[in-house]
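sorry for the late reply, my laptop died twice this morning and i had to redo everyting from scratch. anyway the thing you sent over, i finally got around to it. pasting the sequence first so we're on the same page, its 298 residues, then the predicted structure underneath. double check i copied it right bc i was rushing
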Amino acid sequence: MNKLKRISKVFESAEEISIDDSSRLIIMSDVHRGDGGWTDAFSNNQNLYFAALFHYYHENYTYIELGDGDELWKNKKLSTIIYEYSHVYWLLSKFFNDDRLYLIYGNHDMVKRDDQFVRNNLYQYYDEREKINIPLFENIKLHEGLVLKHRVTGQKTLLIHGHQVSFLDYELWRLSRFLVRYLWRPLESFGVNDPTSTSKNYDKKDAVEKTLIEWVKREKHLLIAGHTHRPMFPEVGEPQYFNDGSSVHPRCITGIEIADGNITLVKWDIKTKNNGTMFIGREVLAGPRKLKDYIYQQ
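ok and here's the structure:
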């Protein structure tokens, strides 16, 4: 199937979420929660991520994860990841219980597209200490994409991971997973990076972004993706392709907020006060811009 048609198929079949200028959403992706080992890219930023999510929970945001939330190429069992980051899953479960959680799967957690896997691994988890199953995300639905539709303007925004435009990461994802799990993960322990990874290969990043931008130009809808780990925030009048970045940047995490009718690219990192005290803080990288300013004039 043509790459652009594949994106359009996701757009046409995606569940729609109604929003308005009072809505508050935080969109993040590529968290790559792992097992806490040497190759767990998330471990260094786990405190940044937890602090950011804690803020968004108490500020009444809905959390939307745009894929690759869990690193299931390097790791075989989701239960190992949940055990390692039980505090994160506790907080995510609070979003879920308040009907403020949406999960999209990416290439590194493509197994979540299987309903049976979701039932077995996300509905509940096994508590090793208590020796019982604990409810987690009971009856949750995983998505390949979502569409935000503004109640007043009718503006539609496609949320998608972005791996759909990569042959190796979509059609051949099982082969890619095998290579990462049994070749590149051991080599990563010795400092060797995976050259096939979109996040570490600038040519692949450019190719993915070019295709996503081509879809935006053709379909005239705003699109927010992840996958490349490269944050993108266009100016008004430019092709409306946004990217939320990732939670595995060195020393920071990034995300896209849609709140009070605005869209903003933000980062969270460790900052220092004049007295030398360190704290985790939010910083605006781009925006805010009025979401309605990005409406295409048909």
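The radius of gyration is 19 Å.
thats about all i looked at so far, will dig more tmrw
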